[in-house]
């Protein structure tokens, strides 16, 4: 496990070394560079962790605590998704909150969803349901 963590950190640092020169060439302000760099590193870390198949498991009790507009997790086919950042954008309005903190599988696979939703949901994946 220590080797994996070290490899992830090394990869993030190498990725940062490749991105910093690109940011300096754009001539952006220093604040913009810091924000961009922070986002790049965060996205890169998430991508690395995802590729290492590191996933957390959550119990139904843990998930049930995330049942509000400002903290919304859902379960779809035994996978856990943090959709908090999507609640306000949801085309169906507050329908997404109907099963906040609970299993949303049936509603998710309903006829109201376009096929693109099946690709979008992967962006919100945070772990698996623990049985």
Order of neighbouring strands in the sheet with most strands = 1-5-4-3-2
| Approximate strand percentage | 15-25%
Q: How many H/I helices? A: 5
Mean pLDDT: 76
Measured distance between first and last alpha carbons: 24 Å
| Cα gyration radius (Å) | 18 Å
Q: How is the main sheet built? A: 5 strands, mixed
Describe the structure.
With 131 residues, the chain is an alpha+beta fold. Helix content is 47%, strand content 15%. The chain contains 5 helices and 5 strands, in the order H-H-E-H-E-E-E-H-H-E. Strands 1-5-4-3-2 form a 5-stranded mixed sheet. Mean pLDDT is 76; it is low at 23-28.
Which tags fit this structure?
5-stranded mixed β-sheet, 47% helix, alpha+beta, 131 residues, 5 helices
Please render the helix and strand layout as text:
Elements: H1 2-26, H2 30-51, E1 56-58, H3 60-64, E2 67-68, E3 71-76, E4 79-82, H4 105-108, H5 116-120, E5 125-129
Parallel strand pairs: 1-5
Antiparallel strand pairs: 2-3, 3-4, 4-5
Quick overview of this protein structure:
This protein is an alpha+beta fold and 131 residues long.
């Amino acid at each position: 496990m220590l080797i994996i963590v070290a490899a992830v950190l090394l990869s993030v640092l190498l990725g940062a070394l490749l991105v910093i020169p690109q940011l300096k060439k754009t001539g952006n302000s220093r604040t913009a560079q810091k924000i961009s760099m922070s986002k790049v590193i965060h996205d890169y870390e998430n991508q690395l962790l995802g590729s290492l198949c590191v996933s957390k498991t959550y119990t139904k009790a843990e998930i049930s605590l995330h049942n509000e507009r400002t903290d919304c997790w859902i379960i779809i086919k035994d996978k856990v998704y943090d959709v908090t950042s999507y609640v306000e954008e949801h085309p169906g309005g507050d329908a997404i909150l109907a099963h906040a903190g609970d299993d949303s599988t049936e509603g998710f696979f309903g006829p109201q969803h376009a096929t693109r939703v099946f690709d979008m949901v992967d962006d919100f994946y945070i772990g698996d349901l623990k049985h």
